[in-house]
Amino acid sequence: MLVTDRDCIIADFAIKSYNKIYNRNQAFGGEDFVLYIYLNNLSEENKGYYLEKWASYPYTTLYDNTEKLNSLAEKPYPGQIVTSPEGVSRQVEGYNELCDELWTTELKKIDTPYIATVDADFEILNADFYFYLISELSKSPSLIGASTCFSATSPHPIYDSYSNRNIILQERNHTWFCIYKREAFKRCNISHYYYEEINSSNQIVAYDSASYFQQHLRQKGFIFIHCPISYYNSYVHYGAASKNKTLNRTNISYYRNAFLLTSRGILRGKNALFSKAINKLVRTIANPFFKNYLNRKNYERSTYITA
Fold it and tell me: Which SUPFAM superfamilies match (predicted)?
């Protein structure tokens, strides 16, 4: 989990939510796990506010990249151009290390049977989906990765608000919660960077972060799976929280509750008919109250930030 100054306020809820996995493991003898928290240029103020709390959880390991950044000949800055190993150049948004770069260099160093990318704004509401994914991955050697969510390749060009272009977006098991078998990093040397190319119809074909890496594993015959829709209420991805400009410690709880009420309802875990009906009713009531507020907060996440 990469945590920056902009998303640390929601990461506080996300990090705590992993106790749902930890407690179930403790109760039923599941496999141990570690939530590796990478403090990505976190300010001294935020470190003072959060670090002791995060370090106190029995499942966390923290790494502060301050010394690493200070040792660089050129630190990241907004507008800096970074070129991927595959030769695609992208613009840096902030003063943090890029997630694509860190996933490329750091994940392969981890020596555990399963390795996952998890976003700072991904919160576990019920751990059932996690145990489902782990169980499914163990069923076949050809299964190489599993995520909560998946998007198929867009059938026609779609508008990309970040680049202000029309692109064909390739399929991806989304990285906000994506588990890989260790073998994935031995079988594929492609980076996790964004990648794009021009097809025979002169259209831009884009691979979002890790999508190109996953595509090469698929070409080798490996299979990715994702959660059935029945687990939708077991997690929430707030989305692009590292682009927050107006959320802070004083209003984050209000935003979080509004988001949960309008997107999930009040009952957590795998959907049954009763919980599905109750949650639908709650969402129907909550949406008119919070729609405009959430639209304003979410709009700032639809474009690149420059500072």
Answer: Nucleotide-diphospho-sugar transferases
The confidence score (pLDDT) of residue 162 equals 74
- Interatomic CA distance for residues 17 and 61, integer angstroms: 15
Q: What is the mean pLDDT of residues 176-198?
A: 96
The Cα–Cα gap between 270 and 175 comes to 21
Mean pLDDT of 61-68: 96
Total structural domains in the chain? 2
Q: Cβ distance 21 to 133 under 8 Å?
A: no
CATH of the domain at 71: 3.90.550
Strands 235-237, 122-124: pairing is antiparallel
Predicted local confidence at residue 160, as pLDDT: 83
Give the number of C-alpha atoms closer than 13 A to the C-alpha of residue 246, restricted to the C-beta side: 11
Q: What is the DSSP string of 202-242?
A: S-EEEE-TTHHHHHHHHHTT-EEEE--GGGGGGEEE---GG
Backbone phi and psi for residue 187, each to the nearest 5 degrees, phi listed first: -90, -15
Query: Domain check: are 208 and 274 in the same one?
Result: no
The 10s digit of each residue's pLDDT in 222-237 is 999 999 999 999 999 9
Domain boundary among 231, 261, 294: 231
Looking at the structure, do residues 208 and 239 belong to the same domain, yes or no? no
CB 75 within 8 A of CB 96: no
Summarised one tens digit per residue, pLDDT across range 190-245 is 999 999 999 988 999 999 999 999 999 999 999 999 999 999 999 999 986 667 77
What tokens were used for 79? 């507008």
